[in-house]
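Q: Please design a sequence for this.
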């Protein structure tokens, strides 16, 4: 009974944080504050009441429409709220009510925000990465006193990892630029890899870049470009992709953060096992 109540509690906290994540995703790319002003309907300016701001439930009760102008509200809101709620629930189910579960949940939430913002706007706001860096570094010290850092890097490894992550992705971007003769990667990817390196340490930071470099071309060339070229180019982000698909995509920076962020979570949770497996089969 206690466990069920705890689960509901964690799920509700996750949903509320998902609701705040929606605000960050919507406002940071515009350079707006996430504290003020209060949320309004983007179509008619109707100020959203507290009763209309309950994560997941309000969107369902309003049937996805503004109570004032009846224009549709993006389904991104309840989906992000649900995803973050499930992330938090999964972290606590897997790791118990521990400080580590809290760290994993927050880190995964930041990565999700980065992924969505990079996919929609081709940028990674400093709000996510600055918060992420300080959160990861500060909690790495706290974790020492609370019974262990795993699966996160310990403080010294976190600092080295931060530098290795940022340095390695800079080298990849530099060589990509020489090869493609145009800017290949945004600075956001460098800031993201600083955060990731601080979370997972130097070795798994390199693994993160490797995993992302393997999945990015498969997803882009195999799924995204063919789909967007086939006329699914409805909103702005999709149109960009369709332009790229029609031969011009080499002119644009890759939203590499979309792939680095989930790769970082894989490296955090499964990186040690992947590296051990690789060393075994390669005989290194
Ligand atoms: Zn409205």
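A: Design:
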């Amino acid at each position: 009974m206690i466990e069920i109540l705890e689960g509901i509690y964690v799920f509700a906290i996750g949903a509320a944080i998902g609701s705040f994540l929606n605000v960050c995703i919507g406002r940071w790319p515009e350079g707006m504050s996430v504290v003020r002003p209060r949320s309004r309907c983007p179509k008619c300016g109707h100020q959203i009441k507290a009763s209309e701001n309950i994560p997941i439930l309000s969107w369902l009760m309003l049937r996805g429409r503004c109570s004032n102008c009846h224009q549709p509200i993006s389904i991104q809101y309840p989906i992000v709220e649900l995803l973050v709620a499930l992330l938090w629930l999964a972290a606590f189910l897997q790791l118990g009510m521990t400080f580590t579960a809290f760290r994993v949940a927050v880190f995964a939430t930041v990565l999700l925000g980065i992924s969505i913002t990079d996919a929609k706007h081709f940028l990674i706001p400093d709000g996510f990465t600055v918060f992420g860096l300080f959160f990861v570094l500060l909690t790495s010290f706290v974790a020492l006193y609370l019974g262990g850092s795993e699966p996160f890097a310990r403080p010294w490894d976190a600092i080295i990892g931060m530098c290795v992550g940022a340095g390695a992705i800079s080298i990849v971007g530099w060589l990509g630029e020489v090869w493609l003769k145009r800017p290949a990667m945004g600075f956001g990817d460098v800031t993201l890899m600083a955060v990731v390196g601080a979370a997972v340490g130097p070795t798994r930071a390199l693994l993160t870049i490797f995993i992302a470099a393997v999945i990015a071309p498969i997803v882009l060339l195999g799924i995204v470009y063919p789909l967007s070229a086939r006329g699914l180019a409805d909103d702005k982000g999709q149109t960009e992709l369709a332009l790229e698909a029609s031969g011009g995509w080499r002119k644009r920076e890759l939203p590499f953060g979309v792939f680095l962020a989930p790769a970082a979570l894989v490296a955090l949770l499964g990186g040690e096992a992947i590296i051990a497996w690789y060393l075994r089969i390669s005989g290194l």
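Q: Thanks. Anything notable?
A: The pocket of zinc ion is lined by residues 41, 43-44, 46, 66, 68-69, 71 (CB under 6 Å). The CA atoms of residues 121 and 237 lie 7 Å apart.
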